[in-house]
Structures are given as structure tokens and as C-alpha cells.
């Protein structure tokens, strides 16, 4: 039996078991700095509170992925969450799964952002590393450093096919 998983639009409800969506949409804001700025506050948490781990900010410049894309491994960061905030209004893909020591491939999902969203991956959320569609997509990445133990599991290559830069993950 072949199950086709199609990319879903990224929404807070659909993504909440994996993490949080970084967006202004539907969020409360306040005017700060004597009216010179609008603050969308507490959009997501930063979960990096294991001893010795500190939160850090990186900038990533991603290469456009070659499609069709082999989803042949998943990784997770057990000691800190990982947050990707695009610096340009371009969509990117997020392949995620639940699971403990092993990813639970029955929970594998793929989300496509709308170009104005980022993602906060809960600590322990299995994911494929950043999937850029266009070349040189830039991201602010909030990570934890210290016990940077991120586990990687090579999974049987989940077959996929691609049309117009859409990815359909097909699982037998
Ligand atoms: N390796 C690294 O810094 N990034 C990955 O963890 C990723 O999820 O892209
Ligand atoms: Ni990662």
C-alpha cells in the first residue's frame, strides 16, 4: 500500500506537536520604544536550559536543494530546541517526525512555509536538516551549544517524487 504524504501549509495547529511557528499572523503585539516599534512578543520559547548549554544565534546561508531530495536521515537535538527564521520572504520545507530513540516514521510530515514563517523545533523533534528551495536563502538560527549532541539516524530512504519543486514523500 503506498501512502503519499503531501506537503501541508504550515499552521500553528498542524505543527504544534513538533514545535512552534514563528509568525506575526494571529499574534498579539504591543507598541514599544515610545511608539517607534511594534513588538510581537513571546512568539516562541527558547528551550536550551540543560546545564552547560547556552542559546546562541547563527546565520545560515542555505544552498537550494537538488530535487528530488533523498530523505535518507533524520536528526534530533536532545538538549536544545532549534529555531529557523528566514531573512527573506521565501518558502522552505520542514520534514519532521516524532519518536524517542528512533524516529517514528508513521508520524513523518512535511510542511511548506508561506515565506513569512519560521519554525521552532522542540528539543527532540526528529527532522531533516534545513531544506532550502532557492539558492542562498538566509536564516537566523537559534541553537544551543555546549553538549551539542545531536543524534542522527539514517532511515531507509523514504521514496519521493517531485513536481514543480513540490516534494511528495511516498511510504510503502
Ligand atoms: N547542523 C546544523 O547546524 N543544522 C542542522 O541541525 C539543521 O537542522 O539544519
Ligand atoms: Ni537540526
Automatic annotation (TrEMBL):
**What keywords are assigned to this protein?**
Lyase, Purine metabolism
State the protein's name.
Ureidoglycolate lyase
Record's InterPro entries?
RmlC_Cupin_sf, UAH_cupin, Ureidogly_lyase, Ureidoglycolate_lyase_dom_sf
Q: How does it assemble?
A: Homodimer.
Q: Report the catalytic activity.
A: (S)-ureidoglycolate = urea + glyoxylate
A molecular function annotated in GO for this UniProt entry is: ureidoglycolate hydrolase activity
EC number assigned by the record = 4.3.2.3
Give yes or no: UniProt keyword Lyase: yes
**Top EC class for this record:** lyase
Among Pfam families, the record links this protein to: Ureidogly_lyase
Originating organism: Arcobacter defluvii
Instruction: Give the encoding gene's name.
Output: allA1
Signal peptide position in this chain? none
Q: State the Gene Ontology BP annotations.
A: allantoin catabolic process; purine nucleobase metabolic process
Amino acid at each position: 500500500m503506498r501512502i503519499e504524504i503531501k506537503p501541508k501549509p504550515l499552521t500553528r495547529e498542524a505543527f504544534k506537536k513538533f514545535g512552534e511557528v514563528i509568525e506575526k499572523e494571529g499574534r498579539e503585539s504591543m507598541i514599544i520604544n515610545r511608539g517607534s516599534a511594534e513588538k510581537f512578543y513571546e512568539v516562541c520559547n527558547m528551550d536550551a536550559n540543560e546545564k552547560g548549554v547556552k542559546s546562541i544565534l547563527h546565520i545560515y546561508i542555505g544552498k537550494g536543494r537538488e530535487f528530488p531530495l533523498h530523505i535518507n536521515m533524520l536528526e534530533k537535538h536532545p538538549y536544545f530546541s532549534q529555531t529557523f527564521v528566514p531573512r527573506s520572504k521565501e518558502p522552505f520545507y520542514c520534514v519532521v517526525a516524532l519518536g524517542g530513540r528512533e524516529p517514528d516514521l508513521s508520524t513523518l510530515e512535511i510542511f511548506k512555509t508561506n515565506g513569512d514563517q519560521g519554525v521552532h523545533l522542540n528539543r527532540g523533534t526528529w527532522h531533516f536538516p534545513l531544506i532550502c528551495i532557492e539558492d542562498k536563502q538566509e536564516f537566523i538560527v537559534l541553537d544551543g551549544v555546549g553538549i551539542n549532541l545531536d543524534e542522527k539516524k539514517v532511515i531507509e530512504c523514504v521514496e519521493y517524487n517531485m513536481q514543480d519543486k513540490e516534494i511528495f514523500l511516498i511510504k510503502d
